[in-house]
From TrEMBL:
Keywords: Glycosidase, Hydrolase. The keyword Hydrolase applies. One of its GO terms (molecular function) is polygalacturonase activity. This is Polygalacturonase. It comes from Stephania yunnanensis. Belongs to the glycosyl hydrolase 28 family. GO terms for biological process: carbohydrate metabolic process. InterPro entries: GH28_Enzymes, Glyco_hydro_28, Pectin_lyas_fold, Pectin_lyase_fold/virulence. PANTHER family: PECTIN LYASE-LIKE SUPERFAMILY PROTEIN, PECTIN LYASE-RELATED.
Length: 215
């Protein structure tokens, strides 16, 4: 998981770091395009200084998402920016969902990946801000049909690194690696109010079995 042969900036795909413009399509377009060449030496997407509002997007293999120290990813507060995905097999249902909806799906995480290999999310202490207050309020008022999105969730993947970032105010868990192997998580600063202000905003919540954890 070293240097990448192919590099691009989110601005190359129309990204606007003004804190107001939605960059969901720009992030997904950038990752999809880099994914076409990532098998040949890997690919890196740079998020430069600015405030980058975005909804959920999916990662690809042999890929690095790199946040500049003055870059802030701002998570959209619009539920429509988070596609519904299947509940985790180990849960069988959504954790927050009510009634029949709990079994129908959950909101995809802000940064999501599944069935990947060689994935890095890293920064010079760049920030990912989940802007979770509206989600916390809806949860406490029982207004959500589906489980809240996590900030970062990686499933069924191998050789994953998440490091040198500041993570703030996730709608729910901040980092959730599950059914993964060879995972490195280090150098994270994770900040959220304590429960009950921000319910279930665990810092790092791995799904583990048959694993060795090295600290």
């Amino acid at each position: 998981m070293g240097c990448r042969a192919h590099n691009a900036s989110i601005t190359d795909f129309g990204g606007v770091g003004d804190g107001k413009t939605s960059n969901t399509k720009a992030f997904q377009a950038a990752i999809d395009q880099l994914g076409k060449v990532a098998a040949d030496g890997g690919a890196l997407l740079l998020v430069p200084p600015g405030k980058w509002l975005t909804g959920s997007f999916n990662l690809t293999s042999h890929f690095t998402l790199f946040l500049h120290k003055d870059a802030v990813l701002l998570a959209s507060q619009d539920e429509n920016d988070y596609p519904l995905i299947e509940p985790l097999p180990s849960y069988g249902r959504g954790r927050d969902g009510k009634g029949e909806y709990a079994f129908k799906g959950r909101y995809s995480s802000l940064i999501f990946g599944t069935n990947l290999t060689d994935v890095i999310i890293i920064g010079q202490n760049g920030t990912i801000n989940g802007q979770g207050a509206s989600w916390w309020q809806k949860f406490k008022q029982e207004e959500l049909k589906y489980t809240r999105p996590y900030l970062i969730e990686i499933l069924h993947s191998d050789h994953v690194q998440i490091s040198d970032l500041t993570l703030l105010d996730s709608p729910s868990w901040h980092v959730h690696p599950v059914y993964c192997s060879n995972v490195i998580i280090k150098g994270l600063t994770i900040i959220a109010p304590t429960d009950p202000v921000s319910p279930n905003t665990d810092g790092i919540n791995p799904g583990l079995f048959n694993c060795e954890v090295l600290a």
